[in-house]
Design a protein that fits this description.
Distance between the termini of chain B: 33 Å
Radius of gyration of chain A: 38 Å
CATH architecture of chain B: 2-Layer Sandwich
Number of strands of chain B: 6
CATH superfamily of the domain at 162-289 and 409-470 in chain A: FAD/NAD(P)-binding domain
Radius of gyration of chain B: 14 Å
Strand order of the largest sheet of chain B: 3-4-5-6
Number of helices of chain B: 2
Number of helices of chain A: 21
CATH class of chain B: Alpha Beta
Structural class of chain A: alpha+beta
Largest sheet of chain B: 4 strands, antiparallel
CATH architecture of the domain at 162-289 and 409-470 in chain A: 3-Layer(bba) Sandwich
Structural class of chain B: alpha+beta
Shape of chain B: globular
Low-confidence stretches of chain B: none
Mean pLDDT of chain A: 94
Largest interface: A-B, 27 and 35 residues
Helix content of chain B: 10-25%
Number of strands of chain A: 50
Helix content of chain A: 10-25%
Oligomer: heterodimer
Mean pLDDT of chain B: 96
CATH topology of chain B: Folate-binding fold
Low-confidence stretches of chain A: none
Strand content of chain A: 25-35%
CATH class of the domain at 162-289 and 409-470 in chain A: Alpha Beta
CATH topology of the domain at 162-289 and 409-470 in chain A: FAD/NAD(P)-binding domain
Chain lengths: 984, 95
């Protein structure tokens, strides 16, 4: 029968039927339901299995603090584990499943853990899986990993979009219960820009769950009227389904808006969730309070829930968990639950109140001074055992039990900046710390004002306090008369003698575990938490922390405030990682930078490689080439034989201008730049202040006060940052300006014996490119193709006669096409980064592999470049003795003794006859390639005192790949050591 | 965090890159006879205060100013924000 537990009334739309499934079975509910309320309406109490012991579990709460009713929602790529059934809004077609079971929910095979519970207590893993250590990886860990965790993930890409957004306001009001609404009304009418956010889909907070009247209106009517007025105010932004997750620095709050979680799938173009950053001048926490349970033996059966939640289900959702219910309480609020359910026609078995002077009722039995000492029912509550005040035990049958141990203010956000909560004896709970996040005020139940009247008044008061601070005129809204019952509570946390009484139901922590932890001397609350895992589940112990503290206080003979409490961290509730990532995922994770010749290279069928954020052509396969080496060897040989063209735009370009530009560069580079002539280019080596090589590149002097410095592709950003630091912080009075022009110029290397002849067809005829007029290392502003401004540098990375030609980026595509067309008569080839790498290794030029963050100018064989006659960054510390050891690593070349052998990068070098171990290490290979010009593999390597070991045969070992053969130490300049080609 | 840029007003800290202790401004004189020792201190020795700390923030996603931000490391309260160039000049860095 459908919805047998449905009562009358409630905030649900009975005219509409919503069909949904749980564990494959179809049920019906109504708009306004949560998954939990709809399941309870259909008499489903069992909703999951516990984490460790696989105990049957049902709903404990009616909100986001839920530890038990954690389910898997949706299917396929939208499947989401570990969702609280108590906050999942029902929609037609919702598919849900229980978690953490093997077999069916009713007959979970893992429930055997419950039989072995004596072994699975606190610290079980630490104590049990100690030895043998070899068992960890292959045996213990896989078992634990399989058993740990609750839900399962789909392993499919999330098809939905998540957005991030920014909001600004004068006052952020967190929570839309009576305090929040009164505050919003006060501040809204005064004209302040306000945002009021609530995690619920329906505003009103507890007003939705109570029968109280406000003036002559019901709670939900007053809420409706208030929200209607707020909606009409242009200065108020109302955000339902929005959880404020954390208080960050300087008035910044993080909030998650669940835009589409209540729909089958997001509407086209809409995100699933939005992660908001809210920047606010003031904030007001009106987050209400959370009820806490009382621990007793077997208090975790489905059907046992918080009394306030039981009342919410009855009043808001018109649902009772069973037709006969009981209440266990230490305060007057528990009696309200019995009264409300009685009024809805539910049979009240009894109210068991631990207080001997408990108020009596004409409508139901009250057992004053009674305590519940056990419960029965395998998959759901059937009966409870009550210890009577006069002695003796009474068994009482009931299908549900509401438990109330009092209410804890929701102060989580107030402790996000490490504020220590303060004890409020009146309500026996922790309240907000004296020093919370700057600019955060607290009102209503979150502050300890647990009555409706108190909430309305404190909301107004605190809003007015903000209005005054922010320069608005305070207002006094006409607050309705509201419930103002005095709080009567006798602190009571657990029934004496109970053992398997659950404190933290999500992490399966019992009273016994706390005893054990104390017995093992974990007396600090922080240690207790970590040893037992109390409060460390996804609910952050919202319903369990207080119970644990109270027991620890009793065991240590201290008062609860002396024991202290742990603090909370963001996020307030679990948040999908996708929401933090927003749209920054997949290819949008970071920008893709394309070179000016990208479109042309694509047309040529180039294979691309990511370098930093750039996509660069790696090689250009020709028809018939089946292996990358064929393409690369061809590109290298053709370039060295005639001419090749390579896009080198990605190298960083920094424009350095000003009267002191030369002085500045003299400090940045370890070698001298002051005397560089206009029209000349120089290689520069840049050190970090600690003397380690940072970057290198060529710098051209285009005018007395104008240089263009180049950096490696990878370091373009960090070098620019470093130069700005030097300019602003170290030499603030130099007349020098910097700007990055990396993307302003498309730059092509034209290399090979025919490079000049090719360029002569491009460069306008008034510019003389002859060796005399434009020698090696010359540079000039020129024009090309009949007047297009360009820059020409005669520099060479390949070791060939070579130029780099720069044109404004928008001409980059046209220029590569023009170059290749002009090069046709010379059989010009485009070459990619692989051929570029082969040619620089053949030439012995250092690159990123050699400037690897551990090497100095001395290691690079450039010690003499570090000028001693001027100050430059790194020059002093490069003098440290440790960096100048006799046997320092030196850059050399390597040649395999057997030409057929490769010389892989990363291999280590040993002296012949020495053992292969770290103590005898002679150095390592940094760069390696096959040299098509030499017909065998070559490599660059750092070798101890390498410059004096030319001709020595070393043993190359690579334990990872198994290589072990002999190599000869040779000069790093494999090709044209005299440099005749590049000066040709 | 929000950093109140002296030229641009309050900006989100996401626009900045943290660049370490502001003592990096006090680069020793290379001609000092104790230069090597001084540079080692400059390069490696840092105070690690629980409280007010002067540090460099680089407005990399903005106007590229280096700022000296004085911040409480325990609360993130920011006491002052200055242009690093002004600080460097006031500490006598001339060239």
């Amino acid at each position: 029968m459908s919805q047998i537990n449905r009562l009358s009334g409630g905030k649900i739309d009975r005219h509409q039927i919503l069909n949904f499934t749980f564990d494959g079975k179809t049920y019906q509910g109504h708009p306004g339901d949560t998954l939990a309320s709809a399941l309870l309406a259909n008499d489903v109490r069992l909703m999951g299995r516990s984490f460790k012991y696989h105990r049957p579990r049902g709903v404990l709460t009616a909100g986001s603090e839920e530890p038990n009713a954690i389910v898997e929602l949706r299917e396929g790529s939208r499947q989401e584990p570990n969702t609280r059934a108590t906050t999942a809004e029902l929609y037609d077609g919702l598919i849900s499943k229980s978690q953490n079971k093997i077999g069916s929910l009713r007959f979970d095979l893992m429930a055997v853990n419950d039989r072995f519970s004596n072994f699975l207590t606190a610290g079980f893993y630490y104590k049990t899986f100690m030895w043998p250590s070899a068992f960890w990886e292959k045996f213990y860990e896989p078992i634990i990993r399989k058993a740990a965790g609750l839900g399962s993930i789909s392993l499919k890409d999330d098809p939905d979009d998540y957005d991030r957004g920014f909001l600004h306001c004068d006052l952020l009001i967190i929570g839309a219960g009576p305090a929040g609404l009164a505050a919003a009304l006060t501040a809204g009418r005064a004209g302040a820009q306000i945002i009021i956010a609530d995690e619920d889909f329906s505003f009103g907070g507890r007003l939705n769950s109570e029968r109280f009247t406000l003036g002559d209106q019901s709670g939900s009517d007053w809420t409706g009227q208030t929200v209607a007025e707020l909606s009409s105010l242009p200065n108020v932004r109302i955000m339902a389904r929005t959880t404020v997750l954390g208080a960050f620095d300087h008035g910044i709050f993080g909030a998650l808006e669940r835009v589409s979680d209540h729909l089958l799938q997001p509407a086209p173009g809409k995100p699933r969730q939005i992660f908001w950053r809210i920047y606010t001048k003031g904030s007001l926490l009106c987050a209400g309070a959370t009820e806490r349970p009382i621990a007793f033996e077997n208090n975790d059966r489905p059907g046992i829930m918080l009394a306030g939640a039981m009342r919410s289900y009855a009043n808001r959702w018109a649902v009772t968990t069973a037709r006969k219910v009981a209440v266990f309480t230490n305060n007057d609020d528990g009696h309200r639950t019995a009264a409300d359910l009685h009024a809805k026609g539910v049979s009240i078995a009894a109210v068991i109140d631990i207080r001997p002077d408990a108020p009596q009722s004409n409508d139901f039995e009250v057992i004053a001074g009674g305590q519940i000492i056990n419960s029965r029912g395998r998959l759901g509550l059937k009966s409870i055992d009550i210890a009577l005040p006069a002695g003796g035990i009474r068994q009482l049958s009931c299908g549900a039990l509401g438990v109330s141990g009092g209410w804890n203010p929701n102060i989580h956000l107030t402790s996000h900046h490490r504020g220590r909560p303060e004890w409020l004896p009146d309500i026996a709970a922790f309240g907000p710390p004296a020093k919370g996040p700057a600019g955060l005020r607290v009102a209503g139940a979150a502050k300890g004002d647990l009555t409706t009247s108190g909430a309305l008044n404190s909301g107004t008061e605190q809003a007015n306090a903000w209005l005054k601070d922010l320069g608005f005129v305070p207002t006094a809204p006409d607050l309705p008369e509201a419930e103002d019952a005095p709080i009567s509570i006798t602190p009571f946390w657990f029934v004496k003698g109970c053992k398997r009484a659950w404190l933290d139901q999500q992490n399966d922590v019992t009273v016994k575990d706390v005893h054990l932890a104390h017995q093992e001397n974990f007396v600090s609350v922080e240690h207790l938490k970590r040893y037992t895992t109390l409060g460390m589940a996804t609910d952050q112990g919202k319903t369990s922390n207080m119970g644990g503290l109270a027991i620890l206080a009793e065991l240590t003979g201290k008062a609860i405030p002396e024991v202290g409490t742990t603090v909370f961290r963001p996020p307030y509730t679990p948040t999908a990682i996708g929401a933090f990532a927003g749209r920054d995922r997949g290819t949008a994770f970071r920008p893709t930078r394309k070179t000016p010749s990208h479109a042309w290279a694509e047309e040529q069928g180039a294979v691309f490689v990511e370098v930093g954020m750039w996509l660069r052509a790696q090689w250009f396969p020709k028809e018939g080439e089946t292996d990358w080496r064929q393409s690369v060897d061809r590109e290298v040989l053709a370039t060295r034989k005639s001419v090749g063209v390579c896009d080198v735009t990605t190298l960083g370009k920094i424009d350095v201008q000003g009267a002191d530009a030369a002085t500045f560069l003299n400090k940045i580079y370890c070698n001298g730049f002051a005397k560089l002539a206009v029209g000349k280019t120089r290689y520069g080596l840049m050190l970090r202040e600690d003397g380690i090589a940072m970057d290198d590149g060529t710098t051209a002097r285009l005018a007395e006060d104008h240089f263009v410095a180049t950096t490696t592709t990878a370091n373009a950003v960090s070098v620019f940052r470093h130069m700005e630091f030097a300019r602003q912080c170290l030499w603030p009075n130099l007349d020098v300006q910097l700007i990055s022009t990396t993307e302003a110029w498309a730059q092509y290397a034209v290399a090979g014996p025919n490079a000049r002849r090719l360029l002569q067809k491009i460069v306008d005829p008034e510019f003389d490119l002859s060796n005399e007029a434009f020698p090696f290392m010359a540079c000039a502003n020129i024009t090309v193709c009949g007047g297009l401004r360009a820059r020409l540098f005669r520099i060479s990375f390949s070791g060939e006669l070579a130029y780099e030609l720069a044109v404004p980026t928008h001409y980059g595509d046209a220029m590569i096409r023009r170059l290749m067309q002009a090069g046709e008569e010379f059989d010009a080839v485009p070459y990619g980064t692989e051929a570029l790498g082969v040619m620089r290794i053949e030439k012995g030029h250092a690159a990123g592999n050699e400037l690897n963050g551990t090497t100095t100018a001395l290691n690079l064989g450039m010690a003499r470049m570090v000028s001693k006659t001027k100050d430059s960054i790194g020059s002093t510390l490069s003098e440290r003795s440790g960096l100048k050891r006799e046997d320092a690593l030196k850059l050399v070349g390597l040649r395999p003794v057997n030409p057929a052998n490769p010389v892989p990068a990363g291999s280590h070098l040993m002296s012949k006859g020495d053992p292969v171990d770290a103590a005898h290490d002679q150095g390592y290979v940094t760069s390696a390639c096959f040299s098509p010009n030499l017909g065998h593999f070559i490599a660059l390597a750092y070798v101890k005192s390498g410059d004096s070991r030319m001709g020595e045969i070393l043993r190359l070992v690579s334990p990872l790949t198994g290589f072990d053969h002999e190599v000869e130490v040779v000069s790093a300049h494999f090709i044209d050591p005299e440099g005749e080609r590049l000066r040709a | 965090m929000i950093i109140n840029h002296p030229l641009l007003g309050p900006r989100d800290s996401a626009e900045f890159t943290y660049m370490g202790d502001a003592s990096l401004i006090d680069r020793p004189d290379w001609k000092n006879p104790q230069a090597l020792t001084q540079f080692i201190d400059y390069g490696y020795m840092r105070d690690n205060p629980a409280g007010a700390h002067c540090e460099l923030w680089y407005h990399e996603q903005g106007d590229r100013s280096f700022l000296v931000v004085t911040r409480d490391t325990t609360t993130h309260e920011i006491f002052s924000v200055e242009l690093a160039r002004d600080v460097a000049r006031s500490r006598g860095r001339s060239t």
